[in-house]
Specification:
It is a single chain. Helix content is 57%, strand content 12%. By secondary structure, the chain is of the alpha+beta class. It folds into 2 domains: 77 residues, Immunoglobulin-like, CATH 2.60.40; 281 residues, ABC transporter involved in vitamin B12 uptake, BtuC, CATH 1.10.3470. The strands form 5 sheets. The chain has a 4-stranded antiparallel β-sheet with strand order 5-4-7-9, with no helix packed on it. The radius of gyration is 22 Å and the shape is globular.
Length: 420
């Protein structure tokens, strides 16, 4: 029975993405990317050349004012992208001018070159750079918070540590990407549709899988293992549908960063919109938890499920609402994450570790703890790039988690429990 339910969820999601993606395939294979450095911003006028693995030139392009380049390739396969280091501005260097690229069928494969101007990952860090990283950390922390609050509420009301929550994040980005790119729907409306799909998938998760398991009194350890299996199934369904590369939305690409606060920091319009929307959503969730009847019922179930049931609260209905809310928040956070880091099949899994770090840091099962912990993790991760390479920045968040657990195992806003 359980195996059939897991298979049904995986096939349902696969069918959904297949229907969405089937209407429009990509026009052809491309290699795309953006050249930018921490202080210089987008770099214009750099020649990027693509060759086959045997060294035969396929094509070249020069980066535009937004640092973007696009090169058509004859088909799927292995290629090498090379930048002309002589075109880089003075003071900007590249640790590797050549990058191997594997392009899938009908995919625009993104390639990134590691550029340094001495301000990021090299021990640098003047006041302006520190403030820039701090604001970027707040933006990233708000995205983590939106996705983590649903996971924390699910744990608080059911006791389940849902490892498949990260895939809800990736599903939101994937559904919005397919609707936006394949059907030409503006990203704002595609995001709203993705949130509806996320809420529906969250509700189906509870109705078809977790509620029957709760009624059969399945242990939490067994349910945790099931969530890991469901996560793997959904992740590889996403890999089949999206391919192994990273892909941008059709809207809001190549925006130029604008100065704010007298030029102390620079942000693109989509970054500013992401911060504002994140704050609005988080405030709305906080007001819902404090002021509405369903919010008070959620807090009651999280505090004492049996007492809440005996006082007349429909616990199953509350838990269903929590799953739908968690799915909607996760998919919305996934769209914002894809807007800043592009859409990828494993993006949810990469964010899941930081979600857990934020939740445990703030205090398990508390929405406000998840918010505080996620903000700290986001800021710490981005600030760590001042002293370590960007590729290792997520390690800093996990190290912070370990330190906090040693000092205060219950988390910042967690409550110590007496056992026995």
């Amino acid at each position: 029975m359980l195996r059939r339910l897991v298979a049904l969820l995986g096939l349902t999601f696969a069918a959904l993405l297949t229907v969405l993606a089937g209407a429009a395939a990509a026009e052809g294979e491309q290699i795309v990317g953006t050249l930018a450095s921490g202080a210089s911003g987008p770099i214009e006028g750099v020649t990027v050349t693509v060759t086959t693995a045997d060294g035969d030139e396929v094509g070249s392009d020069t980066t535009d004012e937004n640092g973007r380049f696009e090169i058509d390739v004859p088909g799927a396969g292995d290629y090498v992208a090379t930048i002309d280091a002589g075109d880089l501005p003075e003071g900007v260097t590249s640790s590797s001018a050549e990058r191997p690229v594997t392009v899938g069928p009908n995919r625009a494969q993104r390639v990134a070159f590691a550029l340094s101007d001495g301000s990021v990952g090299q021990g640098g860090g003047d006041t302006i750079t520190v403030l820039q990283r701090f604001v970027e950390g707040l933006r990233f922390g708000l995205i983590i918070a939106i996705t983590a609050i649903g996971l924390s509420l699910i744990f608080g009301t059911t006791g389940l540590t849902n490892f498949a929550h990260g895939e809800l994040v990736a599903i939101g980005a994937a559904v919005a990407f397919i609707i936006n790119v394949s059907f030409g729907v503006q990203l704002i409306w595609a995001t709203l549709l993705a949130v509806v799909v996320g809420a529906a998938i969250g509700g189906l998760n509870d109705r078809l899988l977790w509620r029957p398991l709760r009624r059969r009194r399945t242990g939490l350890i067994a349910m945790l293992v099931i969530s890991i299996g469901l996560s793997i199934v959904l992740r590889y369904v996403l890999l089949i549908q999206l391919g192994g590369g990273q892909q941008p939305y059709a809207d809001y690409r190549g925006q130029r960063a604008e100065p704010y606060f007298g030029g102390i920091i620079t942000l693109t319009d989509k970054d500013v919109a992401s911060i504002i929307l994140s704050v609005v959503v988080l405030v709305a969730v906080a007001l819902m938890l404090q002021r509405t009847k369903i919010g008070k019922a959620m807090r009651a179930v999280a505090d004492n499920r049996d007492l809440a049931a005996s006082s007349g609260i429909n616990v199953d209905r509350v838990i269903l609402f929590v799953w739908m809310l968690g799915g909607a928040l996760a998919t919305f956070g996934g769209v914002l994450y894809g807007l800043s880091d592009q859409v990828a099949w494993d993006m949810g899994f990469r964010l899941l570790l930081l979600m857990f770090a934020g939740i445990i840091l703030g205090g398990l099962g508390t929405a406000y703890g998840a918010l505080v912990g996620s903000l700290i993790v986001g800021v710490f991760v981005q600030m760590s790039t001042l002293v370590i390479p960007d590729d290792l920045k997520n390690v800093g968040g996990l190290l912070l988690l370990i330190v906090i657990l040693v000092v205060r195992p219950s988390g910042i806003l967690g409550v110590r429990e007496r056992v026995g």
